[in-house]
Amino acid sequence: AKSSWEQCLALDPSAPNVRQYLQSLGEPLPEAPQNPGRTYFQQGLYSLAAVAFQKALELEPDDAEPWYNLAATRIKMKDYKGALKAFDQCLLLQPTHRNAGLFRAKIFFELHQYQKAIKAYEKLLQIYPCWTEAQEDLAKVKDLCSSKRKNNHR
After folding, report:
1. Per-residue pLDDT tens digits for 42-80
2. What DSSP character marks residue 38?
3. Which positions ≥6 away from 138 have C-beta within 8 Å?
4. Distances (CA, A) of 137 to 27, 112, 141, 146
């Protein structure tokens, strides 16, 4: 029976009756409302993860982490536009979120929006100037743009 209650809580982290029941058993409760989303994400159930993260955002719209998790899920679903929107919201709430900035820049690169990728990497490197991965990625984008310009002038 306890397992059924835990499944209910996984589907709706804010369910008061379920939380009260598990507390009466002395069971620990999930720390954050996005935990079901993380579980679904790890299982490759990205549509369910996205729904869970959106529910978490209804409870905590000013928390950057569910926005980041939703963005990561959108990437797995190949919804790059949705991922960018979620990363933008994450960075609005927490401008120094390293991975949100990095993956946002990587999406621009994958979408062949090289100037936006360059700007995103440069902004990230203003905050984290010694981050080697971002430096290397920026150099690759700039090299690619440079070689494209050379090929266009031939």
Report:
1. 999 999 999 999 998 998 899 999 999 999 999 999 999
2. H
3. 105, 118, 121, 122, 125
4. 45, 14, 6, 14
Average pLDDT over residues 134-138: 96
Q: Which helix (H) or strand (E) holds 88?
A: helix 80-93
111: which DSSP letter?
T
pLDDT for 121: 97
Within its chain, how far is the Cα of 23 from the centroid? Answer: 31
Q: What is the DSSP letter of 29?
A: P
What is the spatial distance between Cα 130 and Cα 54, in angstroms, rounded to a whole number? 34
pTM here?
0.73
